[in-house]
What we know:
By secondary structure, the protein is of the alpha/beta class.
Amino acid sequence: MNNSSKVHAPRNRASAMRSAHWVRALALQTLLAALLAGSAAFAAGPEVAADSNGCTIYGDPPRPLAKLSLDGTLDALLQLVFSCALYHGELLDGWKDADGTPRHACMINTGGATPQHKLPMLVWLHATLASTTGFFTTALLKTIPTADLSGDPQRPGYILLLPEGRVIDQFLPFPLNTGISWDHWYRNMDRSSPDLNVDVAAIDHFIEVVKQRDIVDTDRVFVSGWSEGADMATLYGLNTPGIAATEPYSTTSPFDDTRSDPCPVKPFASNQRPYNLILRACDTGAACKYGSRFVDELRAGVLSPASLVQETIINDTGNGQVAQCDASCDDVTGNPLREAFGAYIHGVWPLGWNEQYLQYFKDHPQ
Length: 366
């Protein structure tokens, strides 16, 4: 992979805050421009042969870019305010995927990784509606310089890599039918294929860009994500060599979500490495129930031995573990008020579980 990505040095916090006045002035103009731009047709994905049901050997055909997306427009505004540079990060760009779409990522190295002081790397994939700005609601930012993911007291901290998805059509109900997200429905993970999933290729590219700096502890590259980002983290982590462990939060399955996916496939994993799915006992659309079923599928031979697979179900407050999903939040037999609470809590990161979340990575190097 080429390493021609341009790297934009971070501005200091004071400089970023001084620019706030023109950021606000441009916000309305950006919104109008994005809405107008949305009326234009965007490039579609690669043409992959489909059967009479519209399904390919990889499941669904590649999801097209959305012509208009409120989510994408709002995210453009959020990116102006909550920029990568504001959080002492570096914007990696200057690269287009096979469809010609410009791709971006934010790298935060406040832990001070150097060739002489290599650190673990966490690749974190955002949810729909939040983009990379979603990470800044997790309270994990302050852990980047101090958390022990290496098991070496002389090497605290880690590198954070935040790739950004695309604004695509999704198999989700309105208003999530379009959004800045990841195409985990098209499951071509074959790196030798000219029709490789372009989101997979983008994540590959940015991981390689950071690795080429010779600052990464390559035995400790981890993948995580939230919601739709957790789906992509699962698909990616289970099928990418060099990923030491995968720990997504709040998802079901990227392979066979029969509630909304026209072309499910059987789960597969070429990277036989530890996997821990963190679930809320009460979550939107009974995600806990369906996520737990997915864990059972993985244990039934997709990952072997079954001990590679872990399930962590946490309580409403996000600071304790429980034994099972909350039946009152079930999408069939649940209480409507509890179901509404599950929809709300889906959008809240479990702040009280951050220590255990990071500990899992520390405990599972390559």
